[in-house]
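To close the chapter, one final illustration. This time we ask the reader to focus less on the individual chains and more on the assembly as a whole: which components sit near each other, and how the overall shape emerges from the parts.
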Amino acid sequence: MTTTENPSTPAPEIGRDRRRKEDRRLITGRTRWVDNQALTGLLHLSVVRSPFAHANIKGIDTSAAKQVPGVVAVYSAADIGADQVQLPCAWPITKDMKSPQRPALAGSRVNFAGEGVAVVVARSAAIAKDAAELVEVDYEELEPVLDMEEALKDGATLVHPEIGTNANAQWVFDSGEAGSGGDVAEALKKAESDDDQIVVRRRFRQQRLVPVFMEPRSTVVDPNSEQLTMWSSTQVPHILKTMLALTLGLPEHKIRVIAPDVGGGFGGKIAVAPEEVLTLLVARKLGKPVKWTETRSESLLTAHHGRDQVQELAMSVTKDGQITGLDVKLIADMGAYLGLVGPGVPILGAFMFNAIYKIPAYRFDCTNVFTTKTLTDAYRGAGRPEATFGIERLMDEAALELGMEPLEFREKNWIKHEEFPYTTVSTLTYDTGNYEAATEQAKQMFDYDGLRREQQERRRRGDVKQLGIGISTFTEMCGLAPSRVLGSLDYGAGGWETASIRMQPTGKAEVVVGVSPHGQGHETAFSQIVADQLGVPFDDVEILHGDTQSSYKGLDTYGSRSLAVGGIAVVKAAEKVIEKAKPIAAHMLEASEGDLEFSGGKFTVKGTDKGVGIQDIALAVFAAHDYPEGIEPDIDAHATFDPENFSFPHGTHLCAVEVDTETGFVSLYKYVCVDDVGNVINPLIVEGQVHGGLAQGIAQALYEEAAYDDQGTLLSGTLVDYTLPTAADLISFDTANTTTASTTNPLGVKGVGEAGTIASTPAVVNSVLDAIRHLGVKDIDMPTTPYRVWTAIQSASGHAGRADEADVASPGAGLGSTASDISKGDTQGGHL
Amino acid sequence: MARIRTTVDGLVYEDDVEPRMLLVQYLRERLGKTGTVIGCDTSNCGACTVHLDGMSVKSCSVLAVQANGAEVLTIEGLERDGQLHPMQQAFHDNHALQCGYCTPGMIMQSIDLLGDNPDPSEHEIREGIEGNLCRCTGYQNIVRAVQDAASKMKPGASATQQSSAQPVAGGGA
Amino acid sequence: MIPAQFDYVRPTTVEEAVQALRDGGDDAKLLAGGQSLLPVLRLRMADPSLIIDLGGIAELKGLREEGNEVVVGAMTSHHDVARDDTLRQHVALIQEATKTVADPQVRHRGTLGGALAHADPAGDLAAPALALDAQFVIAGPNGTRTVAAADFFEDYFTTAIGEGELLTEIRFPKFTGWGARYEKFNRVAQAWSIVAVAATVKVEGGTISEARIGLTNMAGTPVRARAVESALVGQSASEENVRKAAQAAAEGTSPTADADAGSDYREHLARVLTGRAVLAAAG
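The assembled structure is written out below.
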């Protein structure tokens, strides 16, 4: 230690449970949501939408709408060239991927219910809506395409006849071909003829969900400033800006995109939405500022959906519990068009089906399909929840077939903590983790053994309310993403992130980041990082984001990347500030650079008490009266960080539910999760992210589904029908962390935004089944509504078919019923 | 058009409004009270919750004309002399918000809840805010915040908190 | 979303309201608490030309005892019904059901009369009103008339309130000393009832001497489970007896099938929930 150590050096900010800087405006109502924007002369846009899932447009009569006082214009697609637009898909997953044109407004054919066919522009939103109702559209109905498996069959009605198929692309990973493992077909074949192995085959359904960010989307375009300015409720202002330029042929430097306060996204605001393009086209055509704000029902109908897969899984395993192969066949519903990253979403799952397990042979085969439904794209977890659900459900099923305790079976196959770094069968290298430690702590907190005893007691007594325990030991890949990896996956951009630090004359720091928050607390967490890096007070740091004029370069917020990639860019920028300040400090201290050390915001000369603070240096370079020759008087810095690897948070989630066997009602009883998200910058924010993530994952298991009828009409088109959990439906969760620092970034962080959602869904479904499996129930499709649970119990007990006869080596029960069957009350034929 | 006179956050306003104008639109579009937001069209989400004559209501399910002669309190009227209402403070202290979109409605409803029941159990809090949807927090820290505020708004809690709490904690009283 | 254009009047007496209905013709719509009507207008599932706001009619609000009855003004809010001491003492069932309606904000605005006149089969107040033999006072151009609950609910969203008429009062006979329970079954806290059971019973010396049971969402109108009522009378309130009697709960019902429940499931729920409601009411 040197003699110059400052006794007043503040405690490290990293790790502190700082209250958020963002809160003040949000709790007092001084917010900047896009819809708050009121510009002089602002016009309002309303979209006329198709009530049909699939139809030819024979004609549009706008004359009555144009007569409404206050209406400025009514446009069909051709009037503004909206039918010529090709909304972008940035992820062509294969060379031969089929990409049908996705227009901003349908010109001659609509391909999902809710697709826009015309727009009305008026002096108020109310008048625009009044007039929109008067636009007469002559439709010629076509067959809807609703079932993704039927859609792939020969002779199926085609969503887009011009591409000749409903198949979008097929993407395959084979560990035998990749050299990362064996040939799974051989492994399964061998297992089938091996008395010491079994093959467990199951079919699972990932239902369609809606992200339901609380702030409905809104866009305002002012065409009259030097740069055309778009305010939009988006997660991706930078991507949006570049894509608008590319899509519409506009010069990129003439566009400014602002994401002000954004009320949640969860992947749902990763898009170049048709309405964003329409607002821009109309604003430019009229030379007036224009606003579009969606209603909730419009949002449920047209903002992109998530999930929606059929999973056919086969696992070979030795009778003493060693996995020998895993075969994954997916069909994923793209909906009517390809979203910005839609086709790549299921592909992210390719790397996660093997999860935390050592699997010697693995194959992943995914076929994306077009249907006449709302398109699907990223929703919290994006591909990884689907994979985690599949593998964690299958682990339970295999344990059951083997007669092993499900946790014991998992432990037998997972990567041991001493085996890290570990390269998986899907070619990713997990840097750190400790599944044993997280599991042990979770079991303790949960009282796993005690609850198992209670479960036995209730079974013995034949209680109406049976207890079930579900497990999910998950990992995920976060920190999207190493640019070269994205390149190898044919993604249309890199995965780097940027940050700039601008030191003010008074010593305050403006930090410009390329990530774009919408609830994550970046302003607080990044301030903590900068405070530690530069040794300046937390309150002296301002984080700027979400405006392409100030934050001119970035790749925005998704995939739990903001800290693991964006946060590291902040660290790199701070390092550059210190590097640039060093020669100036040496000059001011009349010392040589080699004798300086930087700590607690101060350069000091080793072995002396001479020092100068970084904030003083900022003032010195502002004055610039006296600085060394040959360097610029400036300590500001910009950094771009491209990660070398993903990060791999993991955790053990344990869920207990009570199932009312008389009514089928499932209530949460206890939920414990211990997550390893690497080093924690702010434990308060981490805990909050986990809580919210859990609620969304639990909602998939128990409550939510975007269901369509047999005409392709969305049944869950309002929040009355798309049932989000309320506070009264959930319980308080017990959360904790174990920590193995990531070794692939200097903060040792991993990311936390999606963990709760990815992990919780299988834990809950496993617990529901665990509660009633002794009654003969094999499987229940999500969401496990009371009706489905009751029906499953009924059919298992022989009232409607014999589910308990399902063959071990054939697809599990619980298949087949679609939402439209349910809507018709068709309860025949077993599980729902 | 109908003529209405309302008191909003302590100020009196007189306006001509279309009968079809919702109270939330009047607040946002005519008075610039954009702190109150719209989250749905079926009165499920509660983001637009304000107090109307001392009781929490969803301002998307009240016509502006129905507020004629009434007193409206929004999230923007809670601060007193630059001091946060204890419920606002508790939301901040307990990290009870993330994106913040549901927050105005949550805070207004939580204040109303404590007006009816100053010492609610966790179960009563969860039921008391069941008309407000949040997609970020899983509600856990919101429940904590309401418990925290309840303890600070109790008689005997510090005087400054009391004085700022009293004028607006009257839900249903 | 914004409702379509309409005219608006706010009468201050029942007579004025009746006159407004006459003037407004077919397209006039009464606005009570507005908690069902306004969402419907916002989604533009209805576009009345005239809204008659009953909120300014003082005589429609409040509760009073009249001999053997508790009389509740049609415009009395759910919030006031849920906390009224007289109802707690004499008509506990309507109060128990009212506490489960929607959420606190909606209960602040929504009214007893509005909910009953709306007659949504999944609404929570019709079944208890039926079980309690409430009387509905309806005012119209020819004065007032009174309709028994059994005749009031006619079909989905349809009641005995005729053209040009409005509901002014609901008169509940006193059920002093009866136990009450509204057993509501829904998917999430905000959701409408899939099925619910309103039960109120009089227990004397451990024996059920009288029982009233109404079912929510088991038909287009609320349904009285009379077979269960008569099976319960004279029985001790044991779990076995009650559950046995409850087996008749689905008799005479005609439940619909939708995504939340098939009709067989609704019938099953009616039996299970009836047993639970009666046991709780008797306990």
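Residues 562-589 of chain A form the longest helix (28 residues). Residues 651 and 675 of chain A are 4 Å apart (CA to CA). With these observations in hand, you are ready for the problems at the end of the chapter.
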